[in-house]
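Here is one chain, start to finish.
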Amino acid sequence: MKHTPSKTLLPKLPKNLLPETPDLEPESTYSGLKIELDTSGTEIYGLTFQGVHFEDSNFSGTRWEWLRLQDVLLEHCNLAGLNWLEAGFTRVKFQDCRLLGAQFVGLQAAHLTLQNCDARLSFWQGNFKQAHFKDCNFEDARFDTADLQKAVFRDCNLTRANLRECKLQETDFRGSVLAGFKVQVQNLQGAIIETQQLPELAHLLGIQIQEGIAGE
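Its structure:
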């Protein structure tokens, strides 16, 4: 039976976004804006962004709690080393962003998209409903007890990525690099891979794959 991936919805942005560099205040809402700003190292509680396009913004080292993003596009942004706690994302896309060592703890995400992002050494914990990851580098990343059912990892680098405690029913890994991939074998039941990816998963089964028969 041919697998039909679930549809991930992209952010719905207003046609006319107002360029602005706001001073962010705790428990405040910002909407209908195109924002370029540097918030590196800040600690803020209760921010909400709706219908916002972040471009060339610096969020590195931020520690934000209870952040809410709805219909938000982050493009060419630096999110390295941030720690966002108990965030909620709905129709959010990260495009060409740097997420090296970023930590998302207690994330509740619906229709999250990452495309062409550097997410090496990143940490993800939470639930991901209809997530789509395309051309992303998750080398040495960790997904801790994450619900990744029906998520799509398309043409991603998952070298040494740790998904041991994740739910992976109908998770689609086709086209991705799985060398040194860390996962419990029983959790792979129902996941979707390609035949050519089987040698990369052989270490999980404790088997060796050799070509031909010795002496023949």
